[in-house]
Automatic annotation (TrEMBL), chains A, B:
InterPro entries: FAD-bd_oxidored_4_C, FAD-bd_PCMH, FAD-bd_PCMH-like_sf, FAD-bd_PCMH_sub2, FAD-linked_Oxase-like_C, FAD-linked_OxidoTrans_Type4, Oxid_FAD_bind_N, Vanillyl_alc_oxidase_C-sub2. It comes from Actinokineospora auranticolor. Residues 44-223 form the FAD-binding PCMH-type domain. PANTHER family: GLYCOLATE OXIDASE SUBUNIT GLCD. Belongs to the FAD-binding oxidoreductase/transferase type 4 family. GO terms for molecular function: FAD binding; oxidoreductase activity. Keywords: FAD, Flavoprotein, Oxidoreductase. This is Glycolate oxidase. Its cofactor is FAD.
Length: 469, 469
């Protein structure tokens, strides 16, 4: 937190209040400080001069025009559940919070689509479409409080991706307020369409740097069957990695395939006061589900169970009890809160080719030893997207520094294994330097050219993803 | 064809010959005329001053630098199977043909990906990966001769899309030579990744207007089971449309769902000298497949058969004989060649919400009556992507004019039904004015801003998709 007082432009605030109403423009630092940061402890932040809560597209346009006229940057923000600092405020900016734009405008069951505002909470959308027998797949860990707008901005993933893809695979079209305040409508309501550049997918994952999304048309899928679940415990992470490779190689597509290392299992068992059935000495637990239903699910999971045993699993069992499946998933989702038993956590997000998962886990153990901190690994084994999570003492600047070193070493390891520095959390304000390493000079130049073309004054989320110079 | 002689720049040709070798630079108009056009009769074309055949990325870079230095535009081209004029030459341009870059560089079965050059023929890739038990889904009608580069540039679809999506859903990363000759590498080899803007999907479907794709990393799927097939014949197209809507609504996802109207069935039966079993008086034939295998396929197709009968089908039957399924598909794919029995054809490519298919077919019949030409409708009912095809006498300028009118009226109808002017064939040089109508002024301006940012001198495929001014 800075001790310098944040510059405030009274004419800007006056115009924002005139457009949105005084109750939609917050300036009290005790309140606005709550909007400085998302959930990533390492990213820089600043004090916003105002936090605004527009209720509709027209109000967003007015905020954009006002901020553009005053040369004040805008940081778009949903629920603040992000893990990259993409929604962190910059000093003196206006934070534009979309949570009041939370209407589900339409569910067209016959064409399997929904039209929503960005502030809709992921879980609320899932529940609403489920009533129509439909399914919105993207399910980031924070799905019970994150917003669709944040999911769109980071191109969020989740546990579903191995079978159903990431957020951009479920987006048909967007409304976006551009830097000049004009409203751009991208995409369409049809399943297919190639009229023009794919602007929809350019804006998805652009981390609020190109415009403010005010509406999205989302593709829905048929609601799958209640899943059956297979759990397998391995004595070595290498064996677990072999099992993942073989499952992929055999052409089995589970609806979920999660991995937890021994430390993750231990933390969750302590936190939830339950046993996950991995047994003593297990180095890794693999949780797989199939939502194909009936005989197809039984066949898929029997094949997975056999592959696990063939790859050296100490035990493997399958259940078609949905309650048991839910408990196992709840355990997997409890890894991060469970780590708070030990201290603060810092979660990474590398994605590697699926054949390299075991090497990544082994490398993380080595990095943990080197920095003297616990690194817990869990992740989406089915697509190689792993979340090595570093535990540190939040009151120790030395431990924080070592955590940062481990964080960077994990990114370097991910790149060395042919992976990427972020599978689903985004670059934000914490991995900008790493993005340059991944993209190279031509890629960075291309990014800057697009940003400058669409946002010539760097109005939107400046300094997120990459710096303009 | 123009009667003015095409301007030729000798220094340009000399430098191209020095870089590529004389046998890779064709200038004889008798030969280069064969590279003026793709398969769309209505799009404008021009005479290229040279047609070049680079063998690798470095040679593409040299062509780009040379043309940029001489201010001569480049029109990238694959096999020329396109249906939008996107690959049509402009007067005095250099046509860059990618067919000599036809190596499959890598098949990584464990990570389910392939790395290919753009000139690889779609069918060759399908065959090569099938040997590894893998599947490359995109299957445009021209799959036995179109190239992956053309598929990427138009974001091609095919019969597979209802279950497996379009080309962009199978692309992980690209190598692209930019307007300054630099090589941009987009994307990654991992399944997921959100590091930076989704440049991969920006270039896919950009119709060669932003750069030349010289390599692609493609995601593969497990090879599905041999499909079983259901055919249903309907007395009215409205009933067929109802069946499609109900199939979608019931959450059934066939691996293929094609529709042919009576005129399409008649043409194919005459052409192939066989009966498709629709019976006399059938107004529409629906062909559905499931590749889920065994019991799952039987369950899906039994449900589809029942929905068809409930929706008023006169007959419906299911076969799990792969040979019979292949024959039916071959019949569906034979619609366009079959139409040559009647004259020249001009195929449209509108995509409408799946609930509006029957209205589209009825509207096409009305348009056919109005212009006095036969309009045959077939298409990908599962995703609403329809190909109304106009038959005309190629020697009659009056019929060509009426065909053009019908072509435009179908586009207007598609937009009026909430659809798009192109589901999979691209805008090219034939639907530029329609793109403006679909995008609106803000969308068009955004397209121009991106094009100008990446290709400031309008080097690549000028006048395709949209005009810069």
């Amino acid at each position: 937190m800075t001790t310098v007082s944040t510059p405030v432009s009274q004419p800007l605030l006056d115009r924002l209040r005139a457009a949105l109403g005084a109750d939609s423009v917050l300036v009290d630092p005790d309140v606005t400080d709550g909007y400085r940061r998302d959930m990533m402890p390492l990213a820089p932040d600043g004090a916003p001069q105002a936090v605004v809560f527009p209720r509709n597209t027209e109000e967003v346009q007015e905020v954009v025009r006002t901020c553009a006229a005053h040369g004040v940057p805008i940081v778009p923000r949903g629920a603040g559940s992000g893990l990259s600092g993409a929604a962190n405020a910059t000093e003196g900016c206006v934070v534009l919070v979309t949570t009041r734009m939370n209407a589900i405008l339409e569910i067209d069951a016959d064409n399997r689509l929904a039209v929503v505002e960005p502030g809709v909470v992921n879980l609320d959308l899932r529940g609403a479409v489920e009533k129509h027998g439909l399914f919105y797949p993207p399910d980031p860990s924070s799905y019970d409080w994150c917003t669709i707008g944040g999911n769109l901005s980071t191109n969020a993933g989740g546990l579903c991706c191995v079978k159903y893809g990431v957020t951009s695979d479920s987006v048909l079209g967007l409304h976006v307020v551009l830097a000049d305040g004009e409203l751009l409508k991208t995409g369409r309501r049809t399943v297919k369409g190639v009229a023009g550049y794919d602007l929809t997918k350019l804006f998805v994952g652009s981390e609020g740097t190109l415009g403010v999304i005010t509406q999205a048309t989302l593709a829905l899928r048929p609601l799958p069957q209640a899943p059956a679940t297979t759990v397998a415990a391995f004595g070595t992470t290498a064996d677990a990695g072999t099992a993942v490779t073989r499952i992929v190689r055999e052409g089995i597509v589970p609806s979920l395939m999660e991995i937890m290392d021994a430390a993750a299992v231990e933390a969750v068992e302590t936190y939830l006061k339950t046993e996950l059935g991995a047994g003593r000495g297990a180095a890794a637990l693999l949780i797989c589900q199939s939502d194909s239903g009936g005989e197809a699910a039984r066949r898929e999971l029997a094949a997975i169970e056999q592959v696990c045993l063939d790859s050296g699993a100490d035990l493997a069992y399958t259940t078609d009890d949905p309650a048991e499946g839910r408990l196992l998933l709840a355990a997997r989702r409890a890894v991060l809160p469970a780590l708070e038993l030990y201290g603060a956590w810092l979660t990474d997000d590398v994605c590697v080719p699926r054949t390299r998962i075991a090497e990544l886990i082994a490398g993380c153990a080595r990095i943990g030893d080197e920095v003297g901190l616990r690194i817990v690994v869990c992740g989406h084994a089915g697509d190689g997207n792993m979340h090595p999570t570093i535990v540190y003492d939040r009151d120790s600047t030395d431990e924080l520094a070592r955590a940062r070193r481990a964080f960077d070493d994990v990114l370097g390891l991910g790149l060395a294994l042919g992976g990427t520095i972020t599978g689903e959390h985004a670059v934000g304000k914490v991995k900008r330097e790493w993005l340059v390493r991944e993209l190279g000079p031509v890629g960075l130049r291309t990014h800057r050219a697009i940003k400058t073309a669409l946002d010539p004054t760097n109005l939107f989320n400046p300094g997120s993803m990459f710096a303009l110079e």
